[in-house]
Amino acid sequence: MLTTGVFAQDQKATIEGVVTDDAGKPLPFVSVLARNSESKKSYPAISDTLGRFSFANMPVEGAYSFDFSSFGYQKRSVTGYVLKYGVPNTVMVSLAIDESKLSEVVVVGYGTQKR
């Protein structure tokens, strides 16, 4: 029975996911932070150009929360996700545009023009 408990603690899983916008288009370079509720450890990732991200060798004990953030979009969290060993683990999330961030526009001009 002791070996079973040790084996369960050593089980690892991979979780993959995709981040999209409200229209379903992939969002690249989204910051994803996974946090384990039991160990309190955090694991960072960034979505690729197709909006995909993954975490490998994640301990299966405890629930996870995932925080998603990207400039110009509202932050989003997924909580209470429990990884399962030996099966696909997937998180699909969409981020809404943050209208308040889009109103902050800075215009910069370079050069001169002669008349």
Tell me the layout of helices and strands:
Layout: H1 2-9, E1 12-21, E2 31-36, E3 42-46, E4 52-59, E5 63-69, E6 76-82, E7 89-95, H2 99-102
Parallel strand pairs: 1-7
Antiparallel strand pairs: 1-4, 2-3, 2-5, 5-6
Describe this structure in words.
With 115 residues, the protein is mainly β. 10% of the residues lie in helices and 43% in strands. It has 2 helices and 7 strands, in the order αβββββββα. It has helices spanning 2-9, 99-102; strands at residues 12-21, 31-36, 42-46, 52-59, 63-69, 76-82, 89-95. It is elongated. It starts with a helix and ends in a 13-residue tail after the last helix. Residues 1-6 have low confidence and may be disordered.
Strand content: 35-45%
Helix share of residues?
Answer: 10-25%
How many strand elements? Answer: 7
Radius of gyration: 20 Å
Number of helices, counting only DSSP H or I runs of 4 residues or more:
2
Spatial gap, N to C terminus:
88 Å
| Major sheet | 4 strands, antiparallel
Mean pLDDT: 87
The strands making up the biggest β-sheet line up spatially as 3-2-5-6
* Secondary-structure element series: HEEEEEEEH
Choose one word for the global shape.
Answer: elongated
Low-confidence stretches: 1-6
In short:
With 115 residues, this protein is mostly beta strands. Helix content is 10%, strand content 43%.
